[in-house]
Design goal:
mainly beta, Thrombin, subunit H, 3 domains, six-stranded antiparallel beta barrel, six-stranded antiparallel barrel, 36% strand
Length: 341
């Protein structure tokens, strides 16, 4: 289910010094905007800024700013100039005027501008993962549900076969999403382990283990694999930024297995920490140009790529990253390109 676009880009509103070729005001920016219910922080940032993801350079230039306010319906955001530089100022009724800073609140309040709450993005941040080739195949696997049922859901018991790591009782249930190979270099980048549920160990008898299923996103089937839960620090604070290195890659997979990719879908891209990507990096999505037949010569021509949207990286691995599509002006597909914004 699609969620309301979350406030990961709140920092784009908090300070906007026009710095050289990075932070620029839109040519058609308003001088003032009143926040209304239904707005998103991304939409508001886009009203003022050409490239809102460059806000971290503003934060570095203003290290004394550290206490941001959340933005609420009814707030009036005004563009002002101080010493020749543009700033966004927040006017909140009797509360006076407060300069916005480039830090993002970790908490979410019902009264603030709509955001995807932490519990909704938790699955994207901490569950599906990239594993080394062979890791999934060597793990314990589901044999059957209770009473010989093949399928198990939340609240059911399931039986698994295989050796379990000693001391672990909480496991994720994963389905093999396939080996991911770079389409250009043919390098094996890892295996996509798609998380479909979670289970807790109840008992072990020989090579057969019994679990209770405490959560499932879909039906659990025989052959699904069990891996120990990996604790990951979850935060709702993302600092949108441009990558510090040159990035050129492709979308290789989509979290929910659909053919077409749209806004708020989670995708896997073939660039990771080794290429310099970090959580919060914003990348452009470019629709791969089609091949068409020249009507005169009959030869096949490659049409140029076209700008199609933006995504933000939220979890990096060594060779791959998970990202969420922030916006797109057309349906995307696997092998569409990503690059610096």
């Amino acid at each position: 289910m699609k969620k309301t676009l979350f406030g990961i880009l709140a920092g784009a509103l908090f300070a906007c010094v026009a710095m050289a070729d990075e932070v620029q005001l839109r040519a058609d920016h308003p001088d003032e905007y009143v926040v209304v219910r239904g707005d998103t922080l991304w939409d508001i940032a886009g009203r003022f800024l050409e490239k809102p993801w460059f806000w971290p350079s503003i934060w570095k230039a203003n290290p004394q700013i550290s206490n941001p306010d959340l933005i609420y319906p009814g707030d009036r955001i005004t563009l002002v100039y101080i010493d020749g530089q543009p700033y966004l100022m927040l006017n909140r009724g009797a509360g006076g005027t407060v300069k916005l800073s480039p830090e993002v609140r970790s908490s979410t309040l019902a009264e603030a501008i709509p955001a995807i709450p932490l519990e909704d993005i938790n699955a994207f941040l901490s569950r599906s993962r990239v594993v080394e080739d062979g890791e999934l195949e060597s793990s314990a696997y589901v044999v059957a549900g209770s009473a010989r049922h093949v399928i198990a859901g939340a609240g059911d018991e399931l039986h698994a076969r295989g050796t379990l790591p000693e001391g672990d009782v909480n496991f994720g249930v994963f389905r093999d999403g396939g080996l991911i190979t770079d389409p250009v270099t043919k390098e094996v980048l890892g295996r996509f382990a798609r998380e479909i549920g979670a289970a807790r160990l109840l008992d072990v008898e020989g090579e057969i283990s019994t679990f209770t299923v405490n959560r499932s996103r879909e039906e659990i089937r025989g052959g699904d694999r069990l891996l120990p839960v990996v604790e990951q620090k979850i935060t709702a604070t993302f600092f949108p930024s441009a990558p510090t290195s040159t990035i050129a890659g492709e979308i290789l997979a989509v979290e929910n297995g659909v053919n077409q990719i749209g806004a708020l879908d989670v995708v896997v891209i073939n660039r990771g920490a080794r290429e310099g990507l970090a959580d919060g990096n914003v990348l452009a999505i470019n629709k791969r140009g089609e091949e068409v037949r020249d009507p005169v010569t009959g030869k096949t021509l490659q049409m140029p790529d076209s700008r199609a949207g933006l995504l933000m990286v939220f979890r990096t691995f060594e060779k791959l990253s998970f990202a969420i599509v922030l916006e797109t002006n057309q349906p995307l597909v696997v092998l569409d390109k990503i690059g610096n914004p």
